[in-house]
Amino acid sequence: MTDVEMARISAGSVLRGDLRGVERREIVVEAFEIGVYPVTEEQVADLIGIPARNPRHPATEISWLRAIRLCNALSEWEGLDPVYSFDGEVVRPDPDSDGFRLPTEDEWEYACRAGATGPAYGAVRDIAWTAADGLRGPVDVGGRMPNLHGLFDTLGNVWEWCSDLYDPEGESDARVFRGGGWSDAPAEVRAAARRGGRPRDAFDDVGVRVARGPIPGLG
């Protein structure tokens, strides 16, 4: 299988959100690891047998529930303890597991920003694939400039699922995805950009980037 390359992100803090939104607060995270790239079609093909038409494209049409199962499959492939257990569609993370998981929203934004406090960590045309490129779908990962953590495609190309509920105060079970994608206008591809979908929903512009490390709030 093609290895999932991970980057070590040191503990620290950064300001979450931007001037367009109402939320502006400090993110504080512990050290963790996160994928250098979104999970690719080739990696999904190796793990769960979905054919890869474009091996280096980020895998899309992956629901949140499938993303969770993908994390477990990757953990088992690497000989690690799976993070997630299931009771029907109720997902429970194991705080003692050393396996792969989805990043939290705070982890995702902290890793994406790499210290930047503006809307993006560089000029969008240089770091992200967006609607300005006239695309009809995702493109190979790693084709634009990385951030200072060495992460590619956190902005643009595809949105990425996180572990969190989209509206923790509401009644919906929708989960959040972050970062903007290939069909979004450049002005909307920002480190603070967020949308949500039900756990069974799948989209042609939403993928997944895996993380490892103690689960915030559970350890």
Helices and strands in order:
Blueprint: E1 6-9, E2 12-16, E3 25-29, E4 32-35, H1 41-48, H2 64-77, E5 84-87, E6 90-93, E7 100-101, H3 105-113, H4 124-127, E8 159-165, E9 175-178, E10 194-197, E11 206-207, E12 211-212
Parallel strand pairs: 8-11
Antiparallel strand pairs: 1-4, 2-3, 4-12, 5-6, 7-12, 8-9, 9-10
Précis, in short:
The chain is of the alpha+beta class. The chain contains 4 helices and 12 strands; from the N terminus they run E-E-E-E-H-H-E-E-E-H-H-E-E-E-E-E. InterPro entries: CTDL_fold (IPR016187), Sulfatase_Mod_Factor_Kinase (IPR051043), SUMF_dom (IPR005532), SUMF_sf (IPR042095).
What integer is the average pLDDT?
93
Number of strands: 12
Strand order of the largest sheet: 1-4-12-7
Strand content: 15-25%
Low-confidence runs of at least 5 consecutive residues: none
Question: Which structural class should the secondary elements be placed in?
Answer: alpha+beta
**Main β-sheet, in a few words?**
4 strands, antiparallel
Number of helices: 4
Shape: globular
Radius of gyration, rounded?
A: 16 Å
Helical proportion? 10-25%
Pfam families: FGE-sulfatase (PF03781)
Domain Sulfatase-modifying factor enzyme-like: 54-212
Protein name: SUMF1/EgtB/PvdO family nonheme iron enzyme
InterPro entries: CTDL_fold, Sulfatase_Mod_Factor_Kinase, SUMF_dom, SUMF_sf
